[in-house]
Amino acid sequence: MPRPSAAQVCLGSFTVVAATVVLLAVSGASGVLAVAVLVGFALALGTVVTVLSWSLSNAAAGSFAKAGSARAASSSASGREYARQR
């Protein structure tokens, strides 16, 4: 199973840090349990962002590969026809 790239992991980590800071600033939580819940939520959000960016990049790579192979097949066929016309 392929792993997320470094950029995708950095995006998820940034999401965790930014979400934690924003949630703590907005909520004003000071109890240990409240902070732990907010940090857990931010961690889950960062994981979702990483997985979504990973799956979107895999889907995009798959569609580009399919389009590229179709384009290569059509260009090779047209290239042969062009060579016959000469």
**First-last Cα distance:** 49 Å
Poorly predicted tracts of residues: none
Give Rg in angstroms. 23 Å
The SS-based structural class is: mainly alpha
Helix content: over 70%
What is the number of strand segments? 0
The overall pLDDT, averaged over residues, is 81
Order of helices and strands: HH
**Helical segment count:** 2
Using the alpha-carbon principal axes, give the shape. rod-shaped
- Main sheet characteristics: none
Task: State which percent range the strand residues make up.
Answer: under 5%
Describe this protein with a few key phrases:
single chain; 2 helices; 86 residues; mainly alpha; 88% helix
Written overview of the protein:
- By secondary structure, this protein is mainly α.
- Helix content is 88%, strand content 0%.
- The protein has helices spanning 6-27, 32-85.
- Helix 1 runs antiparallel to helix 2.
- The protein starts with 5 loop residues before the first helix and ends with a helix.
- The mean pLDDT is 81.
